[in-house]
Amino acid sequence: MTKTFVIAAAAIAALATPAAAMDAPVASVDMSDLDLTQEADRDVLDQRIDRAIRNACRVRGFDAVSRKAEQRCMTAMQAEIAPKVAIAIDEARTGRLAAITLDPRG
Q1: Cβ neighbours of residue 4 under 8 Å, at least 6 residues apart?
Q2: Residue 49: how many CB atoms within 10 A of its CB?
């Protein structure tokens, strides 16, 4: 299983002009040191994802248009990563349960 999430603002890129789509932000989040069956590690992953998204979507301007673009980017990236995180957590839990399954035949 891949231990890194790659997040791209695909929704923004799809709606943007071709030139802007090429500049769509991408973030990478390492989770190789986390045990996603543990709540504390899931919290750490959430913090890493939030930080990566904020950094990827950061804009230089402070005007309303820039802030709206930043918020749209963050929303798109969060929507893209949420199902991936859910799958990773489910796989971690399933893997742990599979590892402790006992053979009833002895």
Answers
A1: 28, 29, 30, 31, 32
A2: 21
- Model confidence over 14-43: pLDDT tens digits? 445 444 445 678 888 899 899 999 999 999
Q: What does the longest C-alpha to C-alpha distance in the chain come to?
A: 68
The helix/strand/coil state of 69 is helix
φ/ψ of 5, rounded to 5, equals -95, 140
CB atoms within 10 A of CB 53: 23
pTM of the predicted model over 0.90: no
- Looking at residue 47, its amino acid is Q
One-letter amino acid of 44: V
Residues counted in the chain: 106
